[in-house]
Amino acid sequence: MGPRPAIAALREKIRRIEASNRPVAAVLPFHVPEIDTRLPSGGLALGAVHEVAGGGNGALDGAAAALFAAGIAARSKGPVLWCVIRQDLFAPGLSQAGLVPDRVVYVEAGDENEVLACFEEGLRHGGLGSVVAEIGRLTMTNSRRLQLAAESSGTIGIALRRWRRQSDAADFGQPTAAATRWRITALPSVPLPVPGVGRARWLVELIRCRAGESADFEVEACDAQGRLALPADLANRQVYAPTGSVRATG
Amino acid sequence: MFAANLAAQAAGLRVGMATAKAQALVPDLIIKDAGPAADAAGLEKLALWALRHYSPIVAADPPDGLIIEATGAAHLHGGELAMLNDIVARLAAAGIAARAAMADSWSAAHAIARSMTKPVVVVPMGKSAETMLRLPIVALRLPADMVAQLQRLGFVWIGDLADKPRAPLALRFGPELHRRLDQAMGRLGESIEPVRPPELLEFRRMFAEPIGAPETMARYTGKLVVELCNLLEAKGLGARRLDLLFHRVDSQMQAIRIGTATPVRSAKRLMRLLCDRLETIDPGFGVEIMSLCATLAEPFETKQIRTSLLSENPETDISSLIDVLANRVGEARLYRFAPVASDVPERSVCKVAPAAPPTGQDWPAQWPRPTRLLPNPEQIETVALLPDHPPVSFSWRGIRRRIKRADGPERVFGEWWKRDAELATVRDYFQVEDEAGERFWIFRAGDGENAATGSHRWFLHGIFA
Q: For residues A189 and B222, what is the distance between their CA atoms, to the nearest angstrom?
């Protein structure tokens, strides 16, 4: 059922009241129609904070989540700031998701408060394409500060949630001001006809999405340009009705 | 005899000996005339060098030392120990055998640097007084004859002196003894008169009434920055390092040092950097003089920015962000990675300064590389067929994983030109995927056949996405 024009007009009005001095909502599309149609305005909002965490063991090592964030950062325009507490990223691995080393400045902040401060500083600056910060705890107040900082500059902020212990990962359910919340879990890849390892597969869960609905996607991991792809065996299946056939009732 | 190098000391020569006696002990002794004036001038030059590199408050500590106030400066060099190591290494590169110590007070640092056997010592905060008790009284900066008299009375260690009644000693030796003792124990403050090069760009503000409120300090910082920026503009310079000194009414001094990646003369940016650190200043009973100086200034290059109408991606300048972050977390913890031509994963990346020009290089894309690399490869228990099969299963951190798919080996040879021990070593890397789809980067030390190439144990080195 399509939205009624009166509702759409009201939504537009509310959006203008809320964002009187904010830049027009621009987005960074994933170029995967199945994901983009589920997001408001057809992509990941610029000037907003997005949360990404790994599922299962990924909550501790944050490897898939980091590559997902690197793919987004690689497709954003401009330099990238990556704030960590202690460095364990391997730059050649990120470079294989399209994030070339010349674009990324790393900050080794030492503790969580310092990471948050650097994150906010990066979001406020305005010259960066995206800022990624690896944080464990993110309170409502902190996330709102970050969100406002991102709105003021139009930079994408990615809070890469990563915890020391599996029990701490329950923190991911707490409400924050982030625009979207993603969970990336590794899935077994499709066996190749020859011995070897194929392209990695992820279960990408859109757990929360402001002005949108949550959804699950099974995708193939970032390629050399940081793009996700729908697996070939799923791409031909009609999971959702194409947008053209949506009809209004009444 | 004024000084003797290590070889001379090993031959039994001591400072203060007569030349004739020394020549009698070592017949082919090399003797040079002492030049106290030249020594002092050299020390002054070293102090200026330290001022430019390390800290805003530096003074010569004649005859053979430098005193550096590290508060508010050590974090820019990666911490206290890293700073001392850096000082000693740089002096060693210049042919100066130096020893460095970090302690709570001038006296303590002076004594510990000269008495400890290690070249670099960092005494934890508040532990200086304890350490001092175990040092000989020679370290107290007392006149030589007073030290000799004390030794004749049986005082060898500072600890011996510390718990003796004061009056009889003061009567015998005067007030100097206990002044030095109190300074060493941190009971008596000692102000450092910092060295100032004559060509320094400096502005001072003196206050009739001492100031202490943070807003007031911020306001006057702003005024000083504007004055300094006008002068920098007139001279065509930009500041690379700024020092803001606060002279307190109790003759103590506090300092803020900021550094920038490129020469800067924008008052707004410098003001922002200084005000970020203003909260670290403790005004005590009030500040009576504030002085701002550009310790390091370089020619300021103006360049035309390309307009964003013509190019799709306007060049963005993030040097202001880099400055803010570098002054927050320290320059060493802000970096970019750059490729190094090496097949050994740990050596294939190096850190470069964030403001360095882009290298334009990338790592070869054909070999899979993990997202996270463990700082040290962790040993895993495996079931594997030699010589060139990946393991069937492995257990890491107490969890057993069955391997469903694997790719490899990618053979990495040791770099014998770096270390002799790597002449024959080999690592065989495999990318493996377990039942849940998690991917790991594991390697076997050795080629699986020849024991000389490695221990044939398996290690986990990285985690793929």
A: 60
More confident residue, A67 or A1: A67
Burial B332-366 (b: 16+ CB within 10 A, else e): bbbbbbbbeeebebeebbebbebbeeeeeeebeee
- Of 2.60.40.10, 2.170.150.40, 3.40.50.300, 3.90.1150.10, the CATH number of A45-236 is 3.40.50.300
At A15, is the secondary structure helix, strand, or coil?
helix
A206-214 average pLDDT score? 89
Q: Which residues pair with B238 in a beta bridge?
A: B298
What is the model's pLDDT at position A20? 56
State the complex-level ipTM. 0.82
Q: Could you say which residues from 315 to 344 on chain B have a Cβ atom under 8 Å away from some Cβ of chain A?
A: 316-318, 320-322, 324-325, 328-329, 333-339
What 3-state class would DSSP assign to A27? strand
Question: In this structure, are B125 and B240 located in the same domain?
Answer: no
Q: Is the same domain home to B279 and B181?
A: no
Indicate whether B379 and B451 sit together in one domain.
Answer: yes
**Helix, strand, coil % over all residues of chain A, rounded to 5:** 35, 25, 40
Domain segments of chain A as ranges:
45-236
For the entire predicted model, the pTM comes to 0.77
Q: What is the pLDDT of residue B448?
A: 81
> Which residues in A lie closer than 8 A to residue B339 (C-beta atoms)?
92, 101
Do residues B159 and B275 share a domain? no
Residue B285 lies in a domain: yes
Does the pLDDT at position A1 exceed 60? no
For B242-253, write each residue's pLDDT tens digit. 889 999 998 888
pLDDT in tens, B234-283: 988 888 888 899 999 988 888 888 888 888 888 988 998 898 888 888 88
Collect all residues of chain B within an 8 Å Cβ-Cβ radius of residue A118.
Answer: 325, 328-329
Residue of A93, A95, A108 with shortest CB distance to B362: A95
* Nearest CA-CA partner of A220 in A206, A233, A202: A202
Domain count, chain B: 3
Which of B321, B342, B343 would best serve as a mutation to test chain A binding (most A beta carbons within 10 A)? B321
**Does the pLDDT at position B309 exceed 60?**
no
Same structural domain, B85 and B226:
no
For residue B401, the tally of other CB atoms under 10 A from its CB is: 18
Nearest to A63 among B325, B360, B465 (CB): B465
Any domain includes B71: yes
| Stretch B215-237: mean pLDDT | 91
Q: Is residue B295 part of a domain?
A: yes
Phi then psi dihedrals of residue B392, to 5 deg: -85, -35
Query: What domain range includes position B388?
Result: 372-463
Q: Which two tokens stand for residue A165?
A: 């212990």
So what's the pLDDT on residue B351? 92
Q: Which of B316, B334, B335 sits opposite A127 (nearest CB)?
A: B316
CA quadruple B353, A110, B329, A139: dihedral sign: positive
Q: Is B124 part of a structural domain of the chain? A: yes
pLDDT at position B431? 92
Residues A140-192 pLDDT 10s: 999 999 999 999 888 999 999 999 888 888 888 889 999 999 999 999 988 88
All residues at 6 or more sequence positions from B310 whose CB lies less than 8 Å from its CB, including other chains: none
Q: Per-residue pLDDT tens for B23-63? A: 888 888 888 888 888 888 888 889 988 888 888 888 888 77
